Structures are given as C-alpha cells and as structure tokens.
Records
---
Amino acid sequence: PNIFCQHVSMAPGVVLAREEVLERFHSATNDLEFDPEQITDDGCKVLAEGIRSNQTLICLKLAAMRWQRVSRSTEPSFSLASTRRCPPGCDLIGVEGFKALAEALKINKALNRLDLHCCAGIGDEVCKAFAESFKLNQALTRIDLSGCTALGDEGCKALSQSLKLNKALRSMLLSSCLGIGDEGVVAMAEGLKVNQALESIAFDSCVKVGDAGCKALAETLKVNQTLRSINLSDCDRIGNEGLNALAKALKNNQRLRVINLSSCQGIGDEGFKALVAALKINHALTILDFSECNGIGDEGC
C-alpha cells in the first residue's frame, strides 16, 4: 500500500502539547513518526488512546532520528572498534507513558511496526509490560528496542515468555542494549525453541553477551525451523567455545540464512575453522560475516 509518513520535525527542546500530538495522530494515514525528545508521558498516553481504536496506522516510530558513532579511542568503556550510541534527550517518555502504549497494543489489530530505539525510558519494567501485550497482540510483526540501554536480562526473560505464545512477530531488534548479557540471551533462546514465527533476531553490540549466550542460541537452532537471521556482531565476549557450538548446530539446521559475527574480537582460528567446516554439510547459509574479526589469523584463513 502507499504509505504516507507524517514526520514531526521541530526545533530541539520544543515539546508538543497534547492537542498537537492528537492533531498529528489524526492527520497521519499509515505511518507516524515523532522525535522522542518532543513527546512526554502525556503525549505518549494520547497516542495510546488513539491507537486503542485506530485501525489504519501500521507503523509508529518514537525513536531517535540518528545514531551517534562512538569509537574505541574516544570511549574506552566500549569494547567495540566502532559502535552506535543514542543521542541525548530521548528520555521525556517515562514508565507510565510506555505502559499506556503497551496496554493499547493488547487491543489494537492494525499496527505492525513499532520503532522505539534509543528510548531511555524503556527498561525491564516497561519491557515486561510490552511482553504481556505481545502475548495477546497478533498484528505486530516488527519491534525495535535497539539502544534501550536500561533494558536487561529481566526484560529478556519476559520477552522469552511472550515468544512462547506470540505467532505474529517476525523481527526483534535488541541491538546495543548494554544491559543484556548471557542470562537474557539464554532465556530468549528457550522461548525460541517454542516459537515458530520469529525470523530475525539481533543482539549486536550487546557487549555483555558471550559464549554462554551463543551456545544457548546454538541449541535453539537444533530445533527451531523458523529463524532466518541472527546478528551477534560486536559481541567481543563470544569466542571459540561459542563458535564450536554454532558449528555443531549448523550441521543439523538447514533453515538459517544469515549469521553476522563481524567485529567479534574474541573469535580466533579454532572457532572460525569449525564453522567453515560445518558449511561442508550445511547448504542453507548464504551470508556468514566475519569481517573485522581481528583474532582470525593466517591459520584460520
């Protein structure tokens, strides 16, 4: 269908009144986008009320307009050669606003894409609210929570439970959620053993994720027949142990098409060779990205 995108663009620091939010909402046709630094809890609640009854809007974006690049040399606390960070000022929407939006999703049957990346107000409590809505909502196909740095393992556990019931979501982006570690990925992997709908999941730049999380996803691949893409790039704690587990899983899985492991500095020759050897049996994988994995040397290649 033709999509009309109503993008709210105003001077930085200008917060929209409730009436302005409502006016923008009613003027949109299919696609609505707001700068999050211009929407407060009240504005988000207005959106939620509209979404409860609206059956035409298919895409809502309450997200930062752009990522900021952060290099390792200027931000040594990041283990990545180059990663993305959210710009400041995306924190006007708090817990109550997002919870109202989550409640609205339990009723709405039209919205299929929700982009909330870099929303600082989204942590585990809010994520649990969205997870509850996903158990009932069977319209949403794509959720982007990338860069929600307050989101951690407890939020992932809640999302995992929702995946056991949800049959609509096709893509879940959790990139650069710095609170997510192995415990959260292990929980998600358990949900994916049951879920037969999700096709793409991203944990790239989740710098706490390591071999344990990678091994859990590998176990999932032995039974899951739906996943087509896994992104674990920029996860430096993933090493040869995790790669060996993936290699074993790929000998059985013939559904996965893409694995992104670029810039995983913990990967060495041993893991790389194991995964390449698995490709002699696996004929489904079309993209295997090891770019900028500096631990792979001449022996691996």
---
Amino acid sequence: FIDDLNMPALDKYNTQSGIELIKQKQDYSHWYDRDKITVKDICHTQYLCCMNPTAGSFVVNRRLQRHFWTCFVSFPEQSALLTIYSTFVKGHFEKLPFKMQVQETASGVIKAALSLHLQVSQNFRKTAKNMHYEFNIRHLSGVFAGLLQAKPSEFTDAEKFALLWIHESERIYGDRLVSNADLRKYRNLSGEMSKKMFPKFAHFQRYFQERNPEPLVFAPFSQGVHDMVDGGCYDKIKDMDRLSAILNEAMREYDSSNASMDL
C-alpha cells in the first residue's frame, strides 16, 4: 500500500525519483541493485495507492497511472452518514437494556455529532502552520467509538449521555487545536450546538463559559485504577479533586514497582 502517491516533490528535471522507481518496477517487473550491479526481479506483487485530495501535485505520471484502475471516493453525504452511524448506535442501544429516555436521546446525539463535525471541518482548515487540521471520517468515527462505550448501569439518564457526546467531541477535536483562540472558537461551536440540540439541558452552558468552566471528564478509570483490571468503568468523574486522587493513586502504585517519577 502506497499512501499519498501524489506528494513527492518534483526535482529540477520535473520528475519524481520515487514515482520513477515504482514505474520502472511496473513496466519491467524489476529494478537494479546498484551495489552488486545485478537485476532484482520482483514478482507476485500488487499495488494499492491513494492520493492526498488537499495537497500535492494532483497529477501522477501517466505512464505510471496506466497500470492502475483509478476511482474517486467523495466524503459521504450527511444522509448517508446518518444512516451509517444510526445503525451502529441503535444496534448498541437495542442490544443493551438502556432506559427509554436514554434511547430517545440517541437520535439527537447522532445529529449533533454529524453537524458539529461538519462545522469543525469547515472552520478549521489545514494550513502550512497547522498541517494536522484535517478532520475526516476517521475523527467522526472516534467520537462514536467513545459513545459506544456507554453502559446501561452508568448511563441511566439522557442528560449524562448528551454530556458524553460533548466530552468525546472535545477529546477528538478540541485536543488537536494548537491555540487558545482556536479552542475558544471550537467551544463556542460546541456550546451553540448543544444549546440547539438539547434545549432542555440549559445548564450545559456551565461547561462552555469562558471563565472557570466546569470540568467535564469521562474515563475508564472513573472507579479507580484497580478497577482497570476488569476493563474499567467508562463513567463521568465527579470533579477535579476526585480525578487528582485517582491519578495520585495510580502514580503511587507505579512508583512502588518502578523508578519514581516526580510529577
């Protein structure tokens, strides 16, 4: 598999050495060992390549391209994404005995997640300074992977499940942002989306206020580090004092069997 086939920069001869090497193999099924001055035959191999849609030359040597079947896959429409992720989430809720009020909130969470992803991808574009600002379906799937960690024993009300969406979104999107200004912009988008999709939970705004926002943390070690032996319990941590106590406990346990870390 060759990723970003169109990314190698052109040299002064208007060619690309990496592309030329691949083309030689595809044309003649061999290349030369320059140390031993011998031919190396390459057999029984297939190549799957992809091109970067937002950067690079956007043109591949036609003598190489003729060896490939070329297709273009666009980002799915919102309606297609809604169908895909609704299937995952509803399957999770139907398999486990969640309360009806939590199940009814799931559709709103799905729509909120899709809408917020669209806004983030439109407002935070990749630049030369922030090359990692590229939000695609992999990041959207990361949000839903977090949502699917919810269990009926911990998520007994709709409000908590909506809070889980806010937390997972900030971990996926907010943690990738490099400046306070970008983070404030993201939190404004997330706050407005939560207000729009969950108007009955008006107190959610305390998590988005600019001064002293209330911390929102879900983690698999919510019941303590010893609970991680059985896979942990993905739940909301009450406050920063509780989080600090859990992390200090983990640090003491680590230091008891390893070189001490002064953190």
---
Amino acid sequence: LCALRTVSKRFLNLASTDEAGWDQHCRTLWSRKSLVCAEALALRQSRRAMTAFRVALEDARNRMEIRAEELCYNPETKEGLVWEFRFKETAGTDWTSFDPWFRGNAGRRMVFLRDGTIKQLVENPKEAGKHIELCSPFFDVANDPAARLLLQSDRERMSRLTMSWRFVAQPMDLPKRPNGAYIRLTVDGREVPTYVVHRSSNGDWGFVIESCWGLFSSSELPRLNSAAPLRNIPRRRPRMRLRRTQDGGRWLNVDGIETDSEDEGSTRVMKAQNETTYSVSTRRQWREALLYNYGAVSLPEGEDATAEFDRVWNQSVRSRHR
C-alpha cells in the first residue's frame, strides 16, 4: 500500500482509504498487542485507519511514559491493565521466599486504582474463574489458609499491607523525565525505591515498571524454570549486606557476596525473565535503597534531592554515634 501511494495522485488517494486494507492492517497488528494508544483507537473509529496505524507505531516506538488511564484498572467495568508482579532476587529471601513466582507459579496479579491505591486480584475459591476479589497486596489465597477462610466468609478481610502510588518527575538517583516515567510506591506507610517505567522488550507494546527490588509487567511474566541449574557466580569482594525485614522491625546482616543485579544471579532467573531491559539495580538506586533500609518514611525528590540525602544521612550517622 505504501508503494502504491507513490505511483500517482489517484493511487495515493485510493491506497489511503480504509477500504484499501488499512483497517484490516490495524486489526491484525493490534490483536497481537497488549496496549494501543487512545489517539490511534480514536482515529480508527473515525475511519482514518492509515493514520491510526502510523500513530500507533510511532507511539509504541517513542513514548516510554505511561498515562494514568493506561496504568489503572476499573473495578466496576473490569476494564484496564492487570499487572503481574514479582520481586527481584536483590529484594532478599525475606521477600522472595513467599513470592509465588519464585516457586514456579505465575506472578501476583496486581491492579493500580484511580484512588491512588494498589490491590491484588484473586479468584474466590468458591467461584473460581467467575468472581474476582480485590484484596490487600500480597494476600496469598493460594498458599495462605487464613486468607482462604476470610474469602469464604462474610467477615471483614484481614489487612496485610497497604500500598499506594503516585507519579514523580525527578526522583533521587535518576534524571528528570516527563510525567508517567516514574512511579513512587508507598508500602505500609513507607516509600520504597522509585519504580521506573519503560516499554517491554517483547514487542507487545506493553510496559514494565521496575525498581531495584521488584517489577510489574503488563504482559504475562515467563515462569521461573526451577529445574535449571545455578551457574557459577564470579567471586567478588565479600562485604556486609544490610536489609530490613518485611515489617521493618529488625535488620538482617548478611556476610556474603554483594550483587547489584539479577544478571549476576542464577541462570534460571535470566532464562525465565526473557528481558534484557531489567536494568534498574541497587547500583542505580543506592541512595533510595540505603535510606529505606535505614528506616526513612519518605524519600527525597526534585533538584535538591541529593542535598536532602546528605542532610538525612549526616543526621542518621550522628544519631547512631550518640
């Protein structure tokens, strides 16, 4: 069709219409994609399929930021993205030990809501496949008998963790980007290292949202191949690794080999993720990770974030030496 449009003005007009096949091109291509921008959908609806085809391609290629309407799920209409979530190995075994993905299962199904909260989608065991419940994050129905009992009863659900989200433009450790490029999560009242938004590398036009400790994917995460052997990890300088437990109540002091990304972890993780762009590591977010591990409730952002980090760090050092 593109070649025909160069033959003459008449062919240009004929090959630009929906009847020439552009609408079918949109239908075929978009059926393999998890997300198509609203502008392209509107153009196709107004019978401008050729323009819609071009706009959709350019948007998927050039826009790395996610919009609120793309990020969020509508629990009333049951429309919107459902994200698969898993922790990274760098989060530590205190978190990965109860992550279903690390047991070879699918990641948790999570949704971002317009009210700024994050919930987990689970099936009611009494109506599997028919009734979906919005539960507190990490409400593990499949492996938690207490959670199953609460879902089967009419009692108020047990609150495990509260999670909320908001966009930020210039988090600490990272360059300033347009709105929708970074998402700051608050977990049980404490902000965690910023999540970075980028397109998935699997070609489905979807998004990956990742931090140094976890990631959300708009498409299904490849399963972990638990049978794959661990490869030898290069020897590195031993040093102490400090990490707080889930509730932040105590420190874990681990003398071992410090690794900064899953690339230096196990072969089975690398085979399962099928993504070369899981690039957000503790090396990139060391200030935010350090502040969180030292008990910070909120994380600095904006142009003065580094200076704020220095101030908080100096106060922390002084208080620990009193």
